[in-house]
Design brief:
By secondary structure, the chain is of the alpha/beta class. It contains 16 helices and 12 strands. α2 runs parallel beside α15, α4 (50-57) packs parallel to α5 and α5 (71-80) crosses α16. The protein binds 1,3-dihydroxyacetonephosphate and iron/sulfur cluster (SF4).
Length: 317
């Protein structure tokens, strides 16, 4: 995959210049997830995983956050920045995990199981966060669950694969797991990984914990997107099979230009791209900075309730 030529094309460069000008005018910060297209990552003030971007969102001077990721990530930024404008290039940049976990169902669970602590993955709507006790990301999920007394019953939501991974890592018995799935990671299969390993027998394997457990069993490393980037940089291998969304290749190539990275196609789209993350484009980023729309708005009462579990998570190192 050639990364640089796209950013060097005159049309792309002209839009990039417009974006940088608008960024100055708006006093905006540009945050981007590793799954964004390379042209967006190149312009960003910070590229990171969900936890790093949440931390970045509360440490800056300025009036506007242009969040190049998916909607729940921008909502998290807004919870931390009620007085700043938070925009996303495309309003339809959602997430299958958010869709799998409606707030009314979580409310019902709460009423029926008042003794359970709800641990919500950050890939949830702000309404679900407001109903939860503590949040987690793929980077700190094990630490978050370990911070809860062992005898305490837990509901982990909404990602079933991450929940099962955390359950195995922590040895928790009393942990119910919501049955949501990531449309990208849940459809990577052990069969396709085995085929890639047969093709590249020297390669190590790094995988995101949203993948199914039979695939994670074959991985040399399991972690968040940024943890995968950090591990690949140091790993004693020239070839690595990376089982996550292929947008991460840009960050991997930056930190380890001499290594070769392979991606496996999932069974859903025969690709390794998140259809939500890929809705954001350079043109839409320019337009959202120009129009300050689509803008994240959260009722203050929900924001304040969602802030509590978010702050609890951010207090955990
Ligand atoms: P990370 O927090 O690991 O970047 O994960 C976000 C995500 O949506 C993975 O699909
Ligand atoms: Fe959601 Fe999966 Fe896309 Fe991540 S990769 S944003 S979990 S659909």
């Amino acid at each position: 995959m050639e990364l640089k030529p796209a950013a060097d094309m005159p049309a792309v460069t002209a839009i990039a210049e417009e974006i940088l000008e608008l960024k100055r005018e708006r006093r905006a910060i540009l945050l981007a997830h590793h799954y964004q297209v390379p042209e967006i990552q190149e312009l960003a003030d910070a590229v990171g995983d969900s936890l790093e971007l949440a931390r970045k969102a509360r440490e800056f001077d300025g009036d506007v956050i242009a969040f190049c990721g998916v909607w729940f990530m921008a909502e998290t930024a807004k919870v931390l920045n009620p007085n700043r404008i938070v925009v996303v290039p495309d309003r339809e940049a959602g997430c299958s995990l958010v869709d799998a976990c409606p707030a009314d169902q979580v409310k019902l669970f709460r009423q029926r199981h008042p003794d359970h602590v709800i641990v919500a993955y950050i890939n949830t709507s702000v309404e679900v966060k407001a109903l939860s006790d503590i949040l987690c990301t793929s980077r700190n999920a094990v630490a978050v669950v370990n911070s809860i007394p062992r005898e305490q019953p837990i509901l982990f939501l909404p990602d079933a694969n991450l929940g099962n991974y955390v359950k195995r890592q922590t040895g928790r018995e009393n942990m119910k797991i919501w049955q949501g799935l990531c449309v990208v990671h849940a459809t990577f299969t052990a069969r396709r990984l085995a085929a890639a390993r047969a093709e590249h027998p020297e390669a190590l394997v790094a995988a995101h914990p949203e993948c199914p457990s039979e695939l994670l069993e074959q991985a040399d490393f399991i972690g968040s997107t940024s943890a995968i980037v950090e591990w690949c940089k140091k790993a004693p291998a020239r070839e690595i099979i990376v089982v996550t969304e292929s947008g991460i290749l840009h960050s991997l190539t930056r930190v380890a230009p001499d290594k070769r990275f392979y991606f496996i196609p999932n069974e859903e789209c025969n690709c390794s791209e998140c259809p939500y993350m890929k809705r954001n484009t350079l043109e839409k980023l320019r337009d959202c900075l120009k129009n300050l729309e689509p803008r994240v708005e959260i009722p203050e009462e929900i924001r304040q309730r969602a802030l509590v579990p978010l702050e609890r998570m951010l207090a955990i190192n």
